[in-house]
Amino acid sequence: MVAALIVYLAFVSILPLLVDLAEEFYLNDLGQVDSTAAIRGNTMIAVGTIICGAVVGKSLGALTATQGIIIGVTVNIVLSICAVVLRTASRSQFEPEHEVENMSHKESLNAALRNHFFPTRAKVLVDGGILSPWVSGVATIASAVTGIYVLLWISGSGQAGPTRLSLLFVLVGSLSAVLPLISGRIMKGPSQRVMRYLRILSVLGILGYGSTLIVALLYSQLGIDRLWAAPGIIVATATGGAITFTVSTLRQMSLERARFKAMIGWVFSIAALCGLAASWVAYALNAVGNPVLVLVLATLSSTCLALIFSAGKLPAKPDEEAETMVDEERSN
């Protein structure tokens, strides 16, 4: 049974990568035609994924985990088949012109996988600004190092544990589903407002992880109820997801196709390496038993993001550049 589960997980682990790469290239192509459509599409995908995965899927998984793994695997297979059918049908709705002419879909997929596993043009690592792959890596650290560990610590063991965990998943998922809607509206505005929004999100992440850290320290010293840590970790987790969503969408909108193609492999690779390292660090530190150290790391990671967003800026949008040129001509 264990061996079969390992083989199954290894087999299906490649599917999210293929789906994410397809979405990234699709939305970048779409962004070259209409940036507003790219925002709207990314928002719909994010909200739908969060509601189905975090609000419904994880909460039900927490409740049914004690009934056996077969239920979860069966539901996973059925829903995966449904996703394949729906994605195949969606291709007929809109298929933007691909960046490389006369290239078959098979060749396009092979090129995307090569760029992911063997990224080139390392120059994009140092001149990407807030869209740099390193920003995605830093953003991944906080969510990976806390992950489900802190939620398991808050929910605790015993009969009430699965119910508490399910409720936490619903609350985290609900807030996480609302923030992309706000992000989408803000990204349609001036670049300065987008940067201010990212700074606010990073500060909320610091406050969220910091407050959860304080509760964890008070629990170890005074034995207060761990549920007091729930608001902080809910806010921190949701804002972290909103930062990742916003930066990813801005990358799809702002970068021309060749530059996006060169950068996206580094984005996925660095984020994956940072997430893998952070997850193993959390496991080694026994985050489920005592999350103090991982919360310190998450707070530091959020602080790094706040500093990056405070010092960084977005390229001006075409309409903003035109307005600037008009103002300069008037002043002259």
Terminal CA distance: 77 Å
Spans of at least 5 consecutive residues whose pLDDT stays below 50 are 98-103, 321-328
- Please tally the β strands and state the result: 0
CATH topology: Growth Hormone, Chain: A
What is the typical, i.e. mean, pLDDT? 79
Large-scale geometry? globular
Rg, rounded, reads 21 Å
In terms of structural class, how would the helical and strand content be classed? mainly alpha
**Largest sheet composition:** none
Whole-number count of domains: 1
Strand fraction: under 5%
SSE arrangement, N to C: HHHHHHHHHHHHH
By DSSP (H or I, 4+ residues per run), the number of helices equals 13
Approximately how much helix is present in the residues? over 70%
Task: Just give the CATH class.
Answer: Mainly Alpha
CATH architectural category: Up-down Bundle
InterPro entries: MFS_trans_sf
Keywords: Membrane, Transmembrane, Transmembrane helix
